[in-house]
Design a protein that fits this description.
Enzyme class: hydrolase
Distance between the termini: 37 Å
Strand order of the largest sheet: 7-10-11-12-13-14-15-16
Number of strands: 29
Catalytic activity: an alpha-D-glucuronoside + H2O = D-glucuronate + an alcohol
Shape: globular
Mean pLDDT: 97
Largest sheet: 8 strands, parallel, barrel
Structural class: alpha/beta
Low-confidence stretches: none
Pfam family, one: Glyco_hydro_67C
Bound molecules: alpha-D-glucopyranuronic acid
Subcellular location: Secreted
Protein name: Alpha-glucuronidase
CATH topology of the largest domain: TIM Barrel
Number of helices: 18
Length: 827
């Protein structure tokens, strides 16, 4: 089998299996209605030629003249088709970027007619992706987008790093400048085009004004030129204080004429390089960024300054982010609530923005958590247009070292009915512009691909990029059929492949929610440091406002109007009433809206604390099954991608147990209410490292305490001599899985060997930082806690289990515990 490194994503165009040979078409030519090599129509022609060769093994010539041949594929714009004498009678009205796809089963005639050039290339990809799945069903359909804004955001820095990027360095920037080689940029544009994304904002929202240097402006030109043939436009993020810090002005006050003038001039320069710039993204007065409030002006004053600078140059928009909040909130004030910030800041400005300003709203009120209600701001703007912001990068959902397929989450948000004015107001219809009559609105998502050949850090997580594009085009896209299409295109048509990937994907979000944070308490990761592993204590006691208000008796944010922060009152009346009342608040958002005792009974009949315990056990158990499911694909897909995913799922299975135990220990310690099933704190198969016979090792306390079994771990006494931990096993002789929980952190690559008696049963290196892309920590904590398992080991009662740890640098071969697990036991 050919090695597949993932670079082509879902556009692999694998040869169709022989079973499809009877249905194969014979095309006489591809008629391309544009000869300009930089036009998306021309690119579409080339893509069709390449795709037919690879999928069907047919070489088809390209022609530029419409002949009326009954066996050709015609691709072009509606305008070009009709000027060339094509019959447009059957073609229904098409929206901007839309396309008409018609195939005639009898005579092998295919028409791919775009409303514009982008529409034509989208249609070409659609046709190829049908063929690649062996779908030869005749079709005659007009395909129109739900919204005109279908963007992605990259959080790339000029130095080549990517904020919250988990797949290697930037493909756009290196050492302060735009890269020279445009190959990956063009490949990226191809993927984006195939999922009908029409623009990418290429730099971090925490922006650097040096993007405006002459070299970088020229670089922007090169990027835009590389992406344009695929119908993808570029936009940039701006640093609000650029006039002061880059332009040498004394202020960046948005009402200062010199500042406005500066933005107009620099905008003109940008357009000299990128004549079709799609617009600006602005993060201002957020997380330490300067903004209009810094100069005592309104957010609208700031947004409008950019909007006016863009206007003379075309249709560019300002995507002004609603992610504005005070990150020094005082938790001791019961009414303080970060979730209120977006509405507090933006509601009264509704209607005060220029018509080319779009307010970009994160889907939830806080920050891409595993579960949130939709942002109330989505129901509070009437005249000012909005776009919803999703996050494909799984920042709070396991950073691609855990796999979470997010299409079901996005669908849940888009299907949500906000009941504005008591009428149907599904979020999909708000952001499409239909519900409130907006002319321009839509979607964006933080994507953060990097130069890794998997693009995103995990082959499975690419399904999120694919699904995002399809949902932004059609928010009614079904998560199951999207993952099935994606699996067929990415891995192959075999039913076992499609069913297995679908099963894992559809279970992935509930599984992750179960072992991370339940009942609307948010992802209980470390919010101060890496946003990755468990650290429930980090939510509270700081100004960031991702609070849980957990104490010894009760937990949750009181967001009611009656006794809490009033957040429920920011929603339209029917929704507000639902969340105000604890009886009508769904269990999965209970702790988002209410502060309750741990003994509060849910609608399920369980108490809150028992639900926490059970959900964590259920989630962590299910995470073990993904690996077993995936094993079915051995030999059905290439070994390279099989092994890559198997490695990630194995890691995830181990880390899910770390999550389970950390969160359960934390709340057990807090409230003292035992698990009804007596699992929490009881681990019959475990040998704690501190209970082993140690030489060269010493016992240390771990912080946070719940990140270690019984709060303790062992590390070597020095960093230049090995440590030995051993223990005589007392168990029935038989076959066991032996799992070792250790810590793999930055600072070194320790080496370990594990023996039973004199027999070496395994060896490994603490080098996950070279193999996994998530943010690593330097400490023994919930991020670095990890597990390795040796399966099917024959054990005799009385065998001596021995681990030798060789420290390296500041990583002192840390060990937490060993589990000797009989068949079927998970712990
Ligand atoms: C999150 C994320 C930051 C990012 C911010 C934003 O807080 O952790 O890295 O800058 O969102 O969306 O602006």
């Amino acid at each position: 089998m050919v090695i597949d490194n993932g670079l082509e994503g879902w556009l692999r165009y694998s040869a169709l299996p022989a079973v499809f040979s009877n249905t194969q078409r014979r095309y006489s030519s591809i008629i391309v209605l544009n000869k300009d090599e930089t036009s998306p129509v021309y690119t579409a022609g080339k893509e069709l030629q390449d795709g037919l060769k690879r999928i069907l093994g047919q070489h088809v010539d390209i022609d530029f003249v419409l002949t009326g041949s009954p066996t050709s594929i015609v691709v072009g714009t509606l305008g070009a088709f009709s000027s060339a004498g094509g019959d447009t009678q059957d073609i229904p009205a098409l929206k901007e970027d839309g396309f008409w796809l018609q195939t005639d089963a009898a005579n092998d005639c295919v028409h791919i007619i775009g409303q514009n050039e982008r529409g034509a290339i989208y249609g070409a990809f659609e046709y190829l992706m049908r063929l690649a799945q062996g779908n030869f069903t005749p079709v005659a359909s007009a395909n129109n987008p739900s919204a005109s804004i279908r963007w992605v955001n990259q959080w790339d820095n000029l130095d080549g790093s990517i904020e919250r990027g988990y797949a290697g360095p930037s493909i756009f920037f290196k050492d302060g400048e735009v890269v020279k080689d445009m190959t990956r940029i063009s490949q990226f544009a191809r993927l984006l085009s195939s999922i009908r994304i029409n623009a990418v904002v290429i730099n971090n929202v925490n922006a650097n004004p040096k993007l405006f240097s002459e070299t970088n402006l020229n670089g922007l030109r090169r990027i835009a030129d590389a992406m344009r043939p695929w119908g993808v436009r570029i936009g940039i993020s701006l640093y609000f204080d650029s006039p002061k810090e880059f332009g040498g002005l004394p202020t960046s006050d948005p009402l200062d004429p010199a500042v406005n003038d500066w933005w107009k001039k620099i905008t003109a320069k940008v357009y000299e390089n990128v004549h079709d710039l799609v617009g600006y993204t602005i993060k201002a007065n957020s997380e330490g960024q300067p903004g209009p409030l810094t100069y005592k002006r309104t957010l609208a004053d700031g947004a409008n300054m950019f909007a006016r600078a863009l206007k003379p140059h075309g249709d560019g928009v300002v995507m002004y982010r609603a992610f504005v909040y005070n990150h020094h909130l005082d938790e001791s004030v019961w009414k303080h609530d970060r979730a209120n910030a977006a509405v507090d800041f933006f509601k009264d400005l509704d209607g005060f923005f220029e018509d080319n300003v779009i307010v970009q709203i994160k889907w939830g009120p806080i920050d891409f958590q595993v579960r949130e209600p939709p942002s109330p701001l989505l129901a509070n703007l009437r005249k000012t247009k909005a776009a919803i912001e999703f996050q494909v990068a799984q920042e709070y959902l396991g950073q691609q070292s855990h796999f979470v397929y997010m299409a079901p989450l996005w669908r849940e948000i888009l299907d949500y009915d906000m009941r504005i004015d008591g009428k149907d107001s599904h979020i999909r219809d708000i952001v499409s512009g239909e519900r409130l009559g907006w002319s321009r609105s839509g979607y964006t998502a933080v994507l953060n691909i990097g130069s890794d050949t998997t693009w995103i850090g995990n082959h499975l997580s690419m399904s999120n990029m694919y699904a995002y594009g399809r949902i932004a085009w059609d928010p009614l896209s079904d998560p199951v059929s999207m993952i099935q299409d994606w699996a067929r295109l990415t891995f192959g048509l075999h039913k076992i492949i499609v069913d297995t990937i679908t099963k894992i994907s559809m279970e992935s979000w509930p599984t992750y929610e179960n072992y991370s944070g339940n009942l609307g308490i948010q992802t209980l990761c470390d919010i101060i440091y890496t946003h990755y592993g468990p650290s429930p204590g980090s939510q509270d006691g700081n100004g960031w406002g991702q609070w849980t208000r957990a104490n010894a008796h009760s937990i949750g944010m009181d967001r009611t109007v009656a006794t809490g922060s009033g957040n429920s009152g920011q929603y339209p009346p029917e929704i507000a009433a639902m969340y105000e009342n604890i009886e009508t608040t769904p269990d999965n958002l209970l702790l988002w809206f209410h502060h309750v005792p741990y003994t509060h009974r849910l609608k399920s009949g369980k108490t809150v604390i028992q639900h926490f315990y059970d959900a964590h056990y259920e989630g962590a158990t299910n995470a073990q099954s993904f690996l077993v499911e995936w094993a079915k694909l051995k030999g059905l897909i290439d070994d390279h991608r099989f092994d890559h995913v198997a490695f990630k799922l194995e890691y995830q299975a181990g880390h899910a147990l770390v999550w389970r135990d950390s969160v359960n220990y934390f709340y057990f310690a807090k409230c003292g209410i035992p698990d009804e099933k007596n699992r929490v704190g009881n681990h019959q198969w475990r040998i704690q490292a501190q209970d082993m016979q140690l030489s060269g090792y010493k016992v240390v306390s771990v912080t946070p305490v719940e990140a270690a079994s019984q709060g303790k771990a062992i590390i070597t006494k020095t960093n230049d001599a090995p440590g030995i931990a051993q223990k005589e096993l007392s168990c029935l002789s038989g076959t066991y899985d032996i799992a070792v929980n250790y810590y793999d952190h930055l600072g070194g690559r320790s080496k370990y060997e594990i023996f039973l008696g004199e027999k070496l049963i395994g060896a490994w290196t603490g080098d996950l930082e070279d193999k996994l892309g998530h943010d690593f920590s330097e400490f023994l904590d919930g991020h670095s806690a990890t597990r390795i398992t040796f399966r099917g080991i024959k054990v005799e009662n009385g065998d001596l289990l021995k681990i030798i740890g060789q420290p390296d640098g500041s990583e002192l071969a840390p060990l937490d515990y060993v589990s000797v697990l009989p068949k079927g036991a998970i712990d």
